[in-house]
Amino acid sequence: MNPTDEKELEKKFQERIDKGEVIEPKDWMPERYRKQLIRMMSQHALSEIVGMLPEGNWITRAPSLRRKAILLAKVQDEAGHGLYIYSGTETLGISREEMVADFFKGKAKYSSIFNYPTLTWADTGSIGWLVDGAAIVNQTALAKCSYGPYARAMIRICKEENFHHKQGYEILAHLMKGTPEQRQMAQDSVNRFWWPALMMFGPHDAESPHSADLLRWKVKLYSNDTLRQRFIDRTVSQAENIGIKLPDPKLKWNEEKQHYDFGEINWEEFNNVIKGNGICNKDRMKSRKQAHDNGAWVRDAAETYAKKHEKNAVSA
Ligand code: BYC
Q1: Which of 40, 94, 128, 133 measures 20 to 30 Å from 195, CA to CA?
Q2: Residues lining ligand 1, Cβ inside 6 A
Q3: Is the four-CA dihedral 206, 208, 213, 218 of positive or negative sign?
């Protein structure tokens, strides 16, 4: 295509975005828009899949049958989220196999939060309350993003995440009504998960290389810092309601700004985790590889069945 035509198409594309139109897979889109979406959506899908591991760790040790059933359903929901988002990403011309292969080659990122261990039962509460809580803030915005398949996947995912958020909060609320040891367990868990949950929103706006394009294309509707602030503002009173203290001495309501002020995130820790040096990075990769290899026979059987079925359909 000659560069003038391409410029004209880009201009029209941006006009559509500015008018709030939704882009569908067969519409013309700039190559950079497609690539950015593949990057972001595949990271998101992978986060849902790897995100099953920390909580999955507690399924066999849940404190009651009721808790076990709820946790099982939640972890299964996360698998579903991963699959919707992988399917949405496939509409951009990449296969799920390629995306999964990129992970095993160490080329694909997933959310930093899943490189922290779940040491106690209370951690399943913190993940539901804080991690799903942060995810909802981010994903409610993504449900209105410019790419149709991604936005539509987010609508259902957000509904399920709301249930996850409530179940996590309920676990912690319940522990906070328990013995001093149970209250201590809940508090200790929040102490460990609070700061990593804030890191989920990504680096400060000034340090975020992808934000300018993504905001212009309305893939992101709000910046990393705006969403982080929104999450903090809505979470503080929830903590107070159940007697949890958030581990930030600088957390304070700012009457003038009508927001909470908060302390500085440890960006060195964040960068270290996303470079692969977090507590659980290696373990997460190993567990996913093992699960993938153990599932090879299922993929083979499904493929053989599909081929046989296709052959029969042709000869019928
Ligand atoms: N962790 O320019 P930036 C869930 C990377 S799962 C790791 O700001 P962007 C759940 C970023 O990728 C929820 N990496 O990037 C599941 C980029 O690196 P590359 C997961 C991070 O894309 C199970 C570089 O830093 N949600 O809810 O504009 C159980 C520069 O960043 C992180 C999503 O994935 C991070 N936290 O903004 C329970 C939401 N932050 O690619 C719950 C969709 C940044 O250049 N994604 N990086 O190598 C997004 O909204 C955006 O991609 C982000 C980052 C806000 C995360």
Answers
A1: 40
A2: 39-40, 43-44, 47-48, 51, 78, 109, 111-112, 127, 131-132, 135, 138, 199-203, 208-211, 214, 224, 274
A3: negative
